[in-house]
């Protein structure tokens, strides 16, 4: 075996590098498996030592990649080449924020079977060359903290400062002296240091504004708390608890806004230093994506109030299905690093929120068998703040299935702005969301209010329904004002047509159970529908249900949270009643009407069969969508139908055409709710009746004789003259000496006797053809043999062919012949004849046999 080598291309990248890096391993045994481990080279000495934490781990097998339903999951590294004994893997670092921290790294490639000595390669991530930067030291109680990680957060829109509602935008690993440098675009950020021996106070992290070209020195000295306890356990495969999941980042958040991090070791074990608090334990979903595992929707809550917690086992399933597709703008341009999610909609157990598009706008999201939803995450890249994305779909998924779902983004050129108040005071950090159906696709925009209660939603043209988030999440009125203390404000409609809109909300104090939704926007067959019913109560969260489910639109579901969602399957107007119950003895009912419009009305007939002059014609035009039945007509501005044809209101085009030609005309179809659509330029050709079939009329061909001129004429009827005759392909040849002429005349002088069978073909001017087999008998040359004198007469034998006329003539002088008829003979069965000359007048007599007459 050749020496094993490892290459990383490129080996140095910036923290904004969006393309994958290539890891290539050569010199392997065919089908060999290797383990790839990535360590932070904390002291940057290029050598793996005890201070270098495991940051990532995965396995690669020669010739293998993760494929489900014929689609490759490119989030899981696999072999992408076809070279035996060589592995070429693409690593998408930008899909996992933790893998883009500025610093030095070591890739260690080893063989579980001991086929080669582990190989180590260096890899570096540098700061992108922004003109402004943060720099400083990481300290704790006046002491430098070596090799700490510093994360750069940017508060999300309307987020209330500190660590709440923030998105990581960058990060770096500090050196031995605790020094760090992070370059970034101008903006407002919070800096949070992390170290494996400390707990970080995210909630108290102050915000800093970085100006253009500025170097902002920021020493981080009050963000650490020394860990006093720990949470430990193992991350395992749900189907095999002995199989640990290695190299996965564990990020733990506490109820007091503390953050603690660690990563699983090579066997899936983790040990996270913490302090006494209530902690949410959850592995990084981006790290899990590298292994093809799903995350739990419900984070494990662990209390360390009484001391350290150990022995935890977090079992996660490996994906058995996936979603895939593209995210592009409405001009078809791919959008890179857009975050998506997939989630189980029935059990609520598992999800995949670590999905990002690659440089070509492609994505892969994980799933299991069941009912799942795929969509664009609200925590997507801030670079897309001025876009709105088409909403995802909910579908039933089978194991081994790959489901394609493409998303389209529209640039939001306008704004809906407003203010939210309660009891005369602004409500900050509450989410507003607006939804609209644009060109048959459902879109949603959202933003949070600032400290003055103001918000701004970026939207394109459309009819928008604007709401305040009353229930669900930290940015809901329930979380801010307290459940039961307010009435959820009603939806407001704002029409945007190249203009900005306003929707202000005054939240009223609670006054029992009230349902504020009294009307619903229309839905459309086969188009995803989503709307939230609004209601309020003083006594708790509302639980929603349908009083008369038999009247509810097929394909839609009313969730207990008040969301009507799904894909309607049947058009119609549905009248039903809903109930809102606060689970404390109070409820209210509300009658609603929802119209489901059919798919857009359209004429689906685009091709008409030819009509034949003088023959009855009947064809039914086809339409789809709208609300059947349909009514058809010819508009007044259209050219007329072919003479003697009519179009019935039922769409039947019928009659007996009388004129040849090509006719163009328009039609209009109207459904029962008076939706109309026109189809321009239908084409109908009226042609002559087809000619009769070709038939060769010869029943047989005449016999011939060797040495005698032969002539026979083939004949055909039907088709369209002129005709062309030939020997059919694959046929035996005609008798030697005879030829079939293109005009059907068989001629020539036979040279061999016998019965000859062959097939002729006739072709008309339209290339229609027919053929027929004939048998021609060619008789040999006739022979006269002298038999002798017989009682005053001369006798001879004629040898020829049966059923052939022969003429025997006699003369006394061949020099000056005077041939006289002796006899004409023919036998239908015999080929030999006895000929007698009864009155020979001279002892010298000459005889000859002629073929014929």
**Averaged pLDDT:** 90
What helical percentage do the residues reach?
under 10%
Q: How many individual β-strands?
A: 81
What profile does the largest beta sheet have? 9 strands, mixed
Tell me the distance between the termini: 96 Å
Strand content: over 45%
Shape: elongated
Helix vs. strand class: mainly beta
Walkthrough of the structure:
A hairpin with a 4-residue loop joins β72 and β73 (745-748). The chain is elongated, with a radius of gyration of 46 Å. It starts with a strand and ends with a strand. Strands 31, 34, 36, 38, 39, 42, 43, 45 and 46 form a 9-stranded mixed beta sheet that branches. A 6-stranded antiparallel beta sheet has the order 21-18-25-24-27-29, with no helix packed on it. Residues 157-165 have low confidence and may be disordered. Helices cover 1% and strands 49% of the residues. The longest helix has 7 residues, at 285-291. It contains 2 helices and 81 strands. The protein has 853 residues and is an all-beta fold.
Properties at a glance:
853 residues, nine-stranded mixed beta sheet, six-stranded antiparallel beta sheet, 2 helices, 81 strands, elongated
């Amino acid at each position: 075996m050749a020496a094993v080598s490892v290459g990383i291309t490129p080996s140095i990248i910036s923290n904004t590098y969006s393309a994958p890096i290539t890891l290539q391993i050569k010199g392997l045994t065919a089908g060999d498996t290797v383990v790839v481990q990535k360590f932070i080279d904390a002291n940057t000495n290029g050598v793996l030592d005890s201070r270098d934490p495991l940051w990532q781990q995965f396995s690669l097998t020669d010739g293998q990649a993760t494929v489900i339903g014929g689609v490759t999951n490119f989030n899981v590294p696999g072999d992408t080449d076809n070279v035996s004994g060589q592995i070429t893997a693409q690593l998408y670092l930008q899909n996992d924020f933790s893998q883009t921290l500025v610093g030095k790294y070591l890739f260690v490639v080893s063989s579980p079977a001991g086929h080669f000595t582990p190989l180590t390669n260096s890899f570096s991530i540098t700061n992108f060359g922004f003109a402004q930067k943060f720099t400083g030291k990481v300290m704790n109680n006046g002491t430098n903290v070596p090799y700490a990680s510093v994360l750069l957060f940017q508060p999300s829109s309307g987020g209330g400062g500190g660590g709440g509602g923030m998105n990581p935008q960058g990060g770096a690993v500090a050196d031995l002296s605790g020094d760090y440098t992070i370059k970034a675009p101008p903006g407002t950020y919070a800096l949070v240091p992390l170290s494996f021996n400390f707990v970080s106070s995210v909630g108290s992290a102050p915000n800093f504004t970085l100006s253009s070209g500025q170097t902002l020195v920021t020493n981080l000295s009050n963000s650490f708390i020394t860990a006093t306890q720990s949470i430990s356990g193992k991350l395992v495969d749900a189907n095999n608890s002995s199989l640990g999941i290695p190299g996965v980042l564990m990020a733990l958040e506490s109820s007091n806004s503390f953050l603690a991090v660690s990563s699983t070791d090579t066997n899936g074990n983790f040990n996270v230093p913490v302090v006494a608090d209530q902690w949410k334990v959850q592995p990084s979903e981006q790290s899990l994506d590298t292994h093809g595992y799903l995350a739990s929707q419900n984070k494990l809550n662990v209390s360390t109030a009484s001391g350290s917690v150990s022995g935890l086992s977090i079992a996660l399933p490996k994906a058995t299905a996936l979603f895939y597709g593209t995210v592009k703008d409405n001009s078809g341009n791919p959008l890179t690093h857009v975050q998506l999610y997939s989630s189980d909609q029935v059990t609520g157990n598992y999800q995949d929120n670590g999905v990002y598009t690659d440089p070509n706008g492609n994505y892969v999201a994980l799933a299991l068998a069941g009912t799942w939803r795929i969509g664009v995450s609200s925590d997507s890249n801030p670079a897309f703040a001025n876009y709105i994305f088409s909403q995802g779909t909910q579908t039933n998924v089978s194991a081994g299935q790959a489901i394609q779902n493409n998303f389209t983004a529209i640039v939001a050129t306008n704004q809906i702005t407003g203010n939210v108040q309660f009891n005369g005071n602004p409500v900050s950090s509450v989410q507003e969301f607006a939804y609209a159906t644009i060109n048959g696709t459902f879109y949603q925009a959202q933003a949070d209010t600032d400290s003055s209660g103001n918000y701004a939603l970026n939207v394109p043209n459309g009819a928008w329904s604007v709401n305040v988030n009353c229930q669900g999440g930290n940015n809901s009125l329930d979380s801010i004002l307290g459940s039961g203390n307010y009435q959820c404000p009603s939806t407001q409609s704002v029409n945007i047509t190249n203009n900005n809109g306003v929707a202000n909300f005054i939240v009223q104090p609670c006054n029992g159970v009230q349902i504020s939704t009294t009307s619903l926007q229309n839905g459309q067959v086969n188009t995803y529908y989503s709307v939230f019913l609004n209601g309020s109560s003083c006594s708790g969260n509302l639980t929603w249900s349908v009083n008369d489910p038999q009247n509810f639109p097929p394909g839609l579901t009313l969730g207990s949270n008040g969301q009507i969602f799904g894909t309607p399957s049947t058009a119609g107007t549905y009248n039903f009643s809903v109930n809102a119950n606060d689970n404390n003895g109070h409820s209210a009912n509300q009658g609603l009407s929802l119209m489901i419009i059919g798919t857009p009305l359209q004429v689906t007939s685009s091709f008409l069969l030819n009509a034949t002059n003088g023959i009855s014609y009947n064809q039914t035009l086809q339409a789809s969508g709208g609300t059947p039945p349909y009514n058809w007509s010819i508009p007044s501005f259209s050219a007329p139908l072919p003479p003697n044809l009519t179009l019935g209101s039922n769409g039947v085009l019928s009659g007996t055409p009388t004129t040849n030609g090509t006719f163009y005309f328009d039609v209009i179809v109207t459904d029962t709710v008076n939706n109309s659509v026109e189809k321009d330029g239908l084409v109908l050709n009226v042609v002559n009746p087809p000619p009769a079939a070709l038939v060769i009329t010869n029943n047989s061909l005449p016999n011939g004789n060797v040495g005698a001129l032969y002539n026979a004429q083939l004949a055909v009827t039907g088709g369209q003259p002129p005709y062309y005759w030939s020997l059919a392909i694959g046929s035996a040849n005609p008798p030697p000496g005879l030829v079939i002429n293109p005009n059907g005349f068989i001629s020539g002088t036979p040279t061999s006797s016998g019965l000859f069978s062959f097939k002729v073909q006739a072709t008309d001017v339209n290339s229609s053809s027919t053929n027929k087999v004939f048998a021609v008998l060619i008789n040999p040359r006739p022979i006269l043999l002298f038999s002798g004198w017989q009682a005053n007469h001369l006798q001879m034998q004629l040898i020829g062919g049966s059923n052939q006329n022969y003429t025997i003539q006699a003369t006394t002088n061949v020099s000056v012949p005077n041939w006289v008829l002796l006899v004409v003979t023919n036998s239908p069965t015999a080929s030999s004849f006895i000929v007698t000359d009864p009155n020979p007048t001279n002892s010298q007599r000459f005889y000859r046999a002629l073929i014929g007459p």
